[in-house]
Amino acid sequence: MPIDRRDFLTSSAAALTAAVLPRTAAAKPHAAQPHVVVVGAGFGGATCAKYLRLWDPGIQVTLIEPNPHFTSCPMSNWVVGGFLDFDYLVKRYDKLPKYGIRMVRDRVTGVDGEKRLVHTQGGEKIAYDRLVLAPGMEFMTEKVEGYAEGAKAGKVMHAFKAGPETLLLRKQLEAMPDGGVFIIASPPPPGRCVSGPYERASVAAHYFKQHKPKSKIIMLDGHIDVVSKGPMFKAAWKELYPGMIEHRPNNLAVGFDHRTMTVRTEFEDQKGDVVNIIPLQRAPQLCKDAGVRNDALDRWCRVDFTTYESTSVPNIHVVGDPIMSNMPKSAHVSNNQAKIAAAAIIELLHGRQPDPVPVIGSTSYSVTSDHTSGSIAVVMRYDPVKKVYQRQPEGGANKTHSEIEFEYGRSWHENMWADTLG
Amino acid sequence: MKRYTLLAGFVLAALGAAWAAHAADAKIEALARSCNSCHGLNGVSVGASMPSIGGLSESYLYNVMLQWKHGERYSATMGRHFKGYSDEELAGLAKHFSALPWVPVVQSADARVLAHGKEATERCETCHGATGGQPDDKDTPMLNGQWAKYLELELMKYRTEGVDMPHKKMRKNAQKMGEDADVAAAAKYYAAQPK
Fold it and tell me: What sign results for the dihedral spanned by CA atoms A44, A45, A46, A52?
């Protein structure tokens, strides 16, 4: 049931608006069917493209994505833990064209914000009225000396974008002898899925407990503590895997020697049998090239939080991981930011005012074994005075894990994939 | 130029007024979008443990949301969500989802399980109707084509001592259901009903 938000204004007021408002706020006069180009078909981009068409079939939407299939990062730790086939993470894009979305399988190589043009590797030049960038994040592998060489030798991986590295990590855990050491080195926030490394430690411990009980997991954590779902993870580890996971906070990995399998942090050297380093992250190069990676450290994109339009380049919106904000970089947040951006883009294209105080609800589940999970549930409201999303009181993480949350978490994935892709 | 500015000012004022006029409904719509992520587009879930909510009665939805908000009902995650919304917003969401059609997701099960389930649901009939699709009052949810896994988990909550489920009659009847296998069969029976 598409929601026709055009009902909100009388047609005469709308006509007047289109005639008088400055061009930046109104649809281009010649654009009978405004064109929105979305880059990246993940939780942010695919959701945005879908909801733009659902809510306003008068808008043309082109979705550009280089990969033939969607591969889900949420649930990919289940594969690492050995209780899910990798194939289950791979979803088709075939339902999106049914919404009238033009899917282009190509890689965007450049954005001309002035001419409103997107350039692709395949040589296409695609004009847009509004552009949505949802390219996820990229790793700052240069911040870990020796990472590139180690990765090339197949001795280290991030496995933090689901794909071949997820399987490589699983394979190495399977090949590791009992009594081995598995190192997970993770960065401080902001970065994608802050609870992901702790979930990974949990699923590895679940596997070791059954098959390699003398093994050990050492977490070299750049963060000050297990901050995300901390009490829940710590309680679960104590209950299920006593003594197996050693968490060392304030210990950012800065180097890796693949010949000796040694991770160097700011404080110590640690040798491992299997080494998983998740480097610091930033908004991808594409965002920089488009002129929207504009924070002081050249890492993230600043946006207007009511429209997700860049603060530096008009008509370019950014959703999901690349944004600088106090919101988690999670699937659910990307999915909901995309809906807020889609609604705002429709309002802007019709010369109307977008919702000035958007609200985002987010749930994130982390498994602690093949049948238990814990969760975070938060509602974040935009505060137009302070210009930040404020977490509403009494939301947050629960202190214990449970079997029922594992069940809910499983279905959370099914619904999240459906809301994004079909 | 002056005229242009005046006119623009007038239009912006009109826009502001229009926003205020429709803001209440639009705001609820905007809040409801967030629910889709877990409960499906138009409140029709595709996940076995997550309930469909589109087309359930306004009164049922509002009551349950308030119970969660005030910590009166066992909650895995929803309590933490609803504490972030005002009662007016929850009322608006209940109205929004109740106005959508109930779309049963019919799940097949083998004949023996269905017969077992039919028998196990005898005492449910008075309030929910023979197939779960004929609730006797506005506070009783539709069960036909609801997700079996969800129904089973809910029934188990009603059967478990110490789990806060405020509906006394439901507690009593769920506890009378006998074996846990009866609960699973009952859930599968309702899930298989198209009407």
Answer: positive
A133 with A221, same domain: the answer is no
| Closest residue in B to A351 (Cα–Cα) | B15
Q: Which two tokens stand for residue B56?
A: 């359930």
> pLDDT of A136-194, one tens digit each?
999 999 999 999 999 999 999 999 999 999 999 999 999 999 999 999 999 999 999 99
User: Which domains does chain B show, CATH number per domain?
Assistant: 28-103 (1.10.760.10), 104-195 (1.10.760.10)
Contact flag A416-B153 (C-beta cutoff 8 Å):
no
CA atoms of A391 and A327, how far apart (whole Å): 9
What does residue A85 show for φ and ψ, rounded to 5 degrees? -75, 140
Question: Residues of B with CB below 8 A from A411's CB?
Answer: 38, 45, 47-50, 147, 149
Q: How far is A84 from chain B (nearest CA, A)?
A: 17
Domain that holds residue A290: 5-66+105-137+283-355
Alpha-carbon distance of B125 to B134, in angstroms, equals: 9
- Total number of domains constituting chain A: 2
Q: Of A338, A355, A372, which residue is a domain's last? A: A355
| pLDDT tens by residue, A241-277 | 999 999 999 999 999 999 999 999 999 999 999 999 9
